[in-house]
Amino acid sequence: MRITVIAIIVVAVFTLGMKLRRGTFFLTTDITPLSDQDGHAFCLELLDRCGAVAIPSSVFHNDKDAGRPYVRRLFSKRPEVLEEAVERLGQLR
Length: 93
Known about the structure:
This protein is an alpha+beta fold and 93 residues long.
């Protein structure tokens, strides 16, 4: 199942035009293909716009600009939940 979950996320990231960064139960992605906002503003609006959540990566950096275009997404969810999240994120394009 873990491979299926990772495959869903990786395919979605590339389909949406985002780039992957290293992570664990989280994937860090560049949101610039989906928004002109920084990660913090993007995350604040994400729940209202498509019912999904993410964590702005800038909170993990001393230099806030270094994490500005990146957000973290948890991928330890059931495949059907992840597939629904991908559909909702696709609506942001």
